[in-house]
Design goal:
Blueprint lengths: L8 H10 L2 H8 L12 H23 L3 H6 L3 E3 L2 E3 L2 H13 L17 H14 L1 H24 L2 E3 L6 E4 L2 H8 L5 E4 L15 E4 L5 E11 L5 E7 L16 E7 L1 E3 L5 E3 L1 E6 L10 E14 L5 H37 L1 E2 L2 E2 L4 H40 L5 H44 L10 H8 L9 H18 L1 H17 L3 H24 L1 H7 L7 H6 L4 H4 L1 H5 L1 H23 L4 H24 L2 H8 L2 H4 L2
Parallel strand pairs: 5-8
Antiparallel strand pairs: 1-2, 3-4, 6-7, 7-13, 8-9, 9-13, 10-11, 12-13, 14-15
Bound molecules: flavin-adenine dinucleotide.
């Protein structure tokens, strides 16, 4: 029997040894006090293992064999509603029976109460079979959890202070309808004239005479937009400072808009119009909708003007989800290419014995191991941080000492998740495109046909660097956090630099020395960017005591002027930062489990050279482009 979990040794490493399950499960199982829950770690892990076995088998046997069929049948609009093609409908009926959409929903709300990490691993398994099925599946349980998290944030969830069981939550009806398999949700953010630039959003939220919120405007590219529950971000306050690129964000609010409403006469009416289904390059099992709102009845989530904050909460888990989606696609591309290359003969041997192709396959394998390392680590930190926040908020019997300790742990996990998440989204998505392209190349002529599914992977992969924040936006976020981190804690940065310098020459283990050289390349590029980016500010800092840097540096910041070089090199920096974190994670694994040295060695053999190249480019390149941007746009276009 085919099983995508059983046949994947690297994934099983994480499940069996690589994940620190203890803390995660204790938090998820509320210190094993949860009624009807597991009594210990072993019981819980056995259950998670069963889920992964089940999902692995389902993906391999009930989705993957139909990938080509899923690719050629599109969703359609009939009488204003989206109708799924037969194969998509069958798969979602079966998924509904397996109840995988209830995986992370708390027991008291009808779910399985599994950690988010288990659901991300399931996502990888489903995505290896077909990314668009995984995506639509993600808009079921993921949107129910978003409702719960939103409600906790705005203070409309009541939790028993002793058992930490949820007693009441604002969106219980929504959550239960998803648990029952009757609905799903979607995130309505993008508009025709506002994608990456969220400050330009124009969809309006207005209070009518009866005090009811009404949404008017258009949303576009909405995945699973034929769902019942729409999280809509809309403008409730006017733009106050048209000059500031960020000012428009303050006037945004988050709403829950049900697709259907019941009128006074008892009739049910669709109030979110599905104006169009986008015709796309790939990703066909997932419906991508253009939506129109004309005074749709809405409920405000949180307070007016807090929309951007809620959107970030929504997008954070979604970015992790895309990381695992991309990973599943890469795994599929690698396996198609590897298996084909082991059979296909050319010039006296199978093509996997030709040097260049052997190198491609090794690179794909190593990239996949790296992305899984970041993904699993990021997901663990994010989940632990979120669950510690809930414990801190609701558990009454905590001593002051215990509270301070939990808060310290929460901050540490949250910091790590914030560092890793944009890098995961960035590198997983970029690699998926690269791997699909390599798979096509390795298969030669048949790679360009539909026969093996390689070209489908390339079409499916192309959206990954675009949605949930483009690669460029992820790189900018990582760059900004990194440079600001240096400014806020310059001593810490200098200590890391000094440590990396010493380790790079004095460590006994050659892999530790190589890892330190990767870190050094990254840190030296960061230092260069910081000093050159804000040249004027940095000049003014020279000679001033380090302790005064944060205060002086953070004042009067002009992103347009000060970040120019760093913005130019943000993607290069993101690649360097990725090498840095992957090496950290793999080194730690190799120390705990010597069998992982091989994974580290494989990664370092490329990462050190690449890091040097990226750092050198950051040091040497860029002036010409920046100069050209100083010319008026009309001249530059000539
Ligand atoms: C299949 C699909 C599904 C989607 N699902 C959803 C969904 O469920 N919900 C939703 O709200 N949206 C969804 N989207 C929309 C998606 O999130 C946007 O397309 C994306 O955010 C980019 O916005 P844009 O298309 O307007 O491109 P733009 O923002 O116009 O960007 C165009 C290019 O310019 C770059 N760019 C823009 N600003 C900068 C900058 N400051 N610095 C450097 N480069 C920059 C971008 O990275 C990109 O390469 C989906 C899109 C697709 C294709």
């Amino acid at each position: 029997m085919a099983n995508f979990f059983q046949d994947n040794a690297d994934l099983r490493y994480y499940f069996e040894r690589g994940v620190e399950w203890d803390e995660l499960v204790r938090l998820t199982e509320k210190e094993y006090r949860d009624e009807g829950g597991f009594e210990n770690l072993a019981e819980a892990r056995e259950f998670y293992g069963e889920i992964l076995e089940l999902a692995g088998q389902f993906a391999a046997e009930q989705i993957a064999p139909y990938a080509a069929e899923l690719d050629t049948q599109d969703n359609r609009i009939v009488d204003g509603e989206v109708v799924a093609p037969p194969r998509v409908a069958t798969i979602f009926e079966q998924l509904g029976e397996l109840e995988l959409h209830t995986l992370t929903i708390p027991r008291e709300l009808g779910g399985m109460n599994a950690p988010m990490l288990v659901s991300f691993l399931v996502s990888e398994l489903l995505a290896r079979a077909d990314v668009s099925v995984m995506t639509h599946q993600g808009f079921h349980g993921g949107m129910a959890m978003a409702a719960l998290i939103f409600s906790i944030h705005e203070g409309t969830t009541e939790v028993d202070a002793e058992t930490l069981r949820i007693q009441k939550t604002r969106f219980e009806g929504l959550i239960r309808s998803i648990v029952d398999g009757k609905s799903w949700g979607c995130m309505d953010i993008t508009e025709p004239d506002a994608g990456s630039d969220m400050a330009a959003l124009r969809c309006r939220g207005e209070l009518d005479d009866e005090g009811v919120w009404r949404i008017t405007g258009e949303k576009t590219f909405i995945t699973s937009g034929h769902g019942e529950w729409h999280y809509v971000i809309a403008r409730t306050e006017p733009v106050t400072d048209a000059e500031s690129p960020l000012s428009g964000l303050e006037g945004l609010s988050m709403f829950m808009v049900p697709a259907h409403v019941t009128d006074a006469d008892g009739s049910v009416r669709r109030q979110v119009e599905i104006a169009r289904l986008e015709e796309k390059l790939g990703h066909h099992a997932s419906a991508t909708c253009a939506l129109a709102f004309d005074g749709a009845r809405a409920e405000l989530i949180g307070k007016r003007g807090e929309g951007f904050r809620y959107m970030l909460i929504l997008m954070n888990n979604a970015r992790l989800g895309v990381g695992f989606e991309a990973l599943g696609l890469s795994e599929c591309a690698y396996r198609i290419a590897r298996d084909y290359a082991a059979e296909r003969r050319s010039m006296g041997k199978t093509i996997d014995r030709h040097e260049m192709l052997a190198d491609y396959l090794d690179e794909m394998k190593s990239d996949i191991e790296a992305v899984r390392a970041i993904g699993v680590t990021a997901a663990q930190h994010e989940e632990i941080a979120q669950k510690l926040a809930i414990q801190l908020r609701f558990q009454a019997d905590l001593s002051e000492q215990a509270r301070a300790d939990l808060e310290r742990r929460r901050k540490r996990h949250s910091r790590k998740s914030r560092r890793l998440t944009p890098l995961l989204k960035f590198v997983a998505a970029e690699n998926a495109v690269k791997h699909a392209r390599l798979a096509v190349q390795i298969l030669g002529g048949v790679g360009y046909t539909r026969e093996y599914g390689a070209e489908k992977l390339l079409r499916d992969a192309m959206v990954l660097p675009i949605y949930e924040g483009t690669s460029q936006i992820q790189a900018l976020m990582a760059m900004k956090d990194t440079l600001m981190g240096m400014v806020k804690a310059p001593k810490r940065f200098l200590a890391r630099l000094a440590e990396a310098r010493v380790t790079a020459i004095s460590a006994r283990d050659p892999l530790v020395r190589s890892a330190a050289r990767v870190t050094l390349a990254s840190l030296s590029a960061q230092q260069h960017l910081l000093l050159s980016t804000a040249a004027d500010k940095a000049k003014a800092l020279r000679g001033k005591p380090l302790a005064e840097w944060p205060e002086r540096f953070l004042k009067n910041w002009d992103p347009k002027r000060d970040f120019r070089l760093a913005m130019l090199h943000a993607e290069r920096l993101a690649r360097l930062l990725t090498h840095e974190v992957v090496v950290e994670i793999l080194l730690e694994q190799a120390e705990r489990h010597p069998g992982r040295r091989e994974v580290l060695e494989r990664y370092l053999s490329r990462a050190e050279l690449r890091a040097r190249h990226e750092a050198e480019t950051i040091h040497e390149y860029g002036e010409r482009i920046l100069r050209s941007l100083e010319e008026p746009a009309s001249l530059a276009a000539e």
